Amino acid sequence: MAPNSKAPEALAALTDSPFDFPATGMLHFRDMISTTTYVFDLDGVMYLGDTQIPYATEAVERLRAAGKNVYFLTNNSGRTRASYCEKLKAVNGLDAPESEIFTSAYATALYLKGHGAEGKTAFVIGEAGLAAELSEVGGLQTVTVADSVDPNTIDYVVVGIDRQFTYDKLRFAHAAIKQGHAQFIATNRDATFPLEHGEIPGGGSIVASVATATGIEPITIGKPETHAYEAILQTAGVNAAESVMIGDRLDTDIAVGKRAGARTVLVLTGVTSEAAANSAPENWRPDVIIGDLRGLE
């Protein structure tokens, strides 16, 4: 997947320059008449960093006014759902309850709880949002390197974005997985994520370091795996054919929609160019490409 290196410039130009609609052979959004549920990615779709992407808020409000279900699905595990509610309000002016927010951290907690992890111990390489969801939703006891625990007592090593990642954390994770019996869980495998002025390393780069050190591949929960998307469908009480996934990445957003059996819309305000989408393999190729969220009409 080729990143859209001109994303910041394109964002600045949105208010002045309308985008063309889909390439030949792709479905026009107007054809999606049976859609009841819209699932939006956040970074690169609703905002870039702390900058609102033009037309994103209006698109959500228009769908809500039409009686549609709206959910937000992000692979970023660093924040709690409550924190994302606050960010959507601050950046986009949107009121979104926690019940509409699905993060890879929340999905990981749901997955572990559903697999009998309540009361067990997780070593967390991640930020406050991940630890909070694992504890409050998953019912796990979370520990860090600062807790000076025996690696052999760890049941799970859970890895997400961690902007304070250190060699000591990597060493402890290695010991818990290789010397102990800990299961390796990744919130997501995104190598990067977009900000206003370009990309920065994502949680997947940290997951990769643990995988390289241990020689063990993790169970991955976030997009393109369908755990979180299926939880949204269950919450909404709809089937995948009634839903559409709207995102800016082919390998996560579009791929999860395809795997789940949903319609897919690529918006060009994030990391992917139209040329990359048109040349992508079938399982990454969106049904619709739009320049910005004015296309959701």
UniProtKB/TrEMBL annotation:
Keywords: Hydrolase, Magnesium, Metal-binding. One of its GO terms (molecular function) is metal ion binding. Substrate binds at K223. Divalent metal ions. Mg(2+) is the most effective. One of its GO terms (cellular component) is cytoplasm. Its cofactor is Mg(2+). SUPFAM superfamilies: HAD-like (SSF56784). Mg(2+) binds at D41, D43, D248. InterPro entries: HAD-like_sf, HAD-SF_hydro_IIA, HAD_sf, PGP_euk. Pfam families: Hydrolase_6, Hydrolase_like. Belongs to the HAD-like hydrolase superfamily. PANTHER family: 4-NITROPHENYLPHOSPHATASE-RELATED, HALOACID DEHALOGENASE-LIKE HYDROLASE DOMAIN-CONTAINING PROTEIN 2. This is Acid sugar phosphatase.
